[in-house]
Amino acid sequence: MADYTKMWSELGLDLKSHDALLSILGSAYGDIFLSQKDRPEGMKYFDFVMSEVHGLRIQELMEAKARGRIVVGSYCVFVPEELILAVDGVSVGLCAGAEFNFEGAEEVLPRNTCALIKSAFGFKFGKVCPYLEACDVVVGENTCDGKKKAYEILGPLVTDLYVIDLHQTKSDMGRALLKEEYRRFAAKLESVSGKKITPDSLKKGIEVVNAKRMAVKRLAAIRAADPAPISGLDALLVNQVFFYDDPVRFTHSVNQLCDELEERVKQGIGVFAQGTTRVIVSGCPMAVPNWKLPMLIESSNAVIVGEESCVGERGTRWLTEFRGETEEDLLDALTERYFSIDCAVFTPNPSRVDYVKEMTKKLNAQGVIHYSLQFCQPHMVESGPVEKELEKSGIPTLRLETDYSQEDAGQLKTRIEAFVERLENK
């Protein structure tokens, strides 16, 4: 990595804490990812991205800002990248996947706040997230009560916080509200960027994001093969990089990886032996560097073949379908696409469990591990009905609740190993 000290300093990072964070993450990345055997060659690109995730990528963002582009950061898949691209902006995900500076976060948040929210505040108070500091606009979304109230505290701490409201029922009223929220967001982007969204610019944004999602959908479909041509860890990494990388470059790199994986499938080459127990992980999103659970699963004689998560198929499986050519037509299509997302905040939410069943069948999985972050009420409450419905349908399900620490790793591994043994004996 080049020396980015001057850039980090100008962004206001705490250099000592940031260096310590990068050292810990670099070591963990090597132990978890680079130690895997028979990895696809195409993963070298994603290894490079991660090695420069706080370096070269941040430099690219600063260069984009110097050319007059705005940088828009977000924490959720309900924030439409298509609109950001329509004003020639850059969309990036923000830091919220590690137990960093929780003691600082707990000075303003209750201890029993979910780890993802505390992580976002920990990175902010610790001054170690260059993405957050590079943003012209930080976009929040009222998906859950925890985030809704936390954004009230975060607002004064960032340059420009913009919050999108989200109706939590799948109704005509909910769809209409979301459309108006996206119309309001578009006006905000136009105001900050000084650029007008046109039908052509929005259509181009939709095309770029559709291509990115199609590449990841292609990867998801390849994972149905046995032996698995890619580990769940590496597939998760691709889904995580989805939120950080340049979209066109990312799409090209994923398609190159898929070319290689399809050739592996033809030749019967896998990263795990044929017949290895296959599971799907369902539930909360796993932001970088939240790799604990996949690592425990794939060191327990099982392979993850799909993620029913916002960092996974819930965030990528729908495309925006063009309907007409006017800006209003395109906004309708965009709203319809995002309104399809079956996040656990919606009530009722039957389509989510239906899709877990569908994933289990199409990816030839033998069981589902439902993952909830501690104090994430939507996923924790929904996990019981999901487990009951899946078990009733003959799909063995394990519910796990954890956080970003390593304290419960031994206990989790014991439960995972017992579940894998159950699947092997099924």
From TrEMBL:
<dbReference type="InterPro" id="IPR010327">
    <property type="entry name" value="FldB/FldC_alpha/beta"/>
</dbReference>
<protein>
    <submittedName>
        <fullName>Benzoyl-CoA reductase/2-hydroxyglutaryl-CoA dehydratase subunit, BcrC/BadD/HgdB</fullName>
    </submittedName>
</protein>
<dbReference type="InterPro" id="IPR047678">
    <property type="entry name" value="YjiM-like"/>
</dbReference>
<dbReference type="Pfam" id="PF06050">
    <property type="entry name" value="HGD-D"/>
</dbReference>
<comment type="similarity">
    <text>Belongs to the FldB/FldC dehydratase alpha/beta subunit family.</text>
</comment>
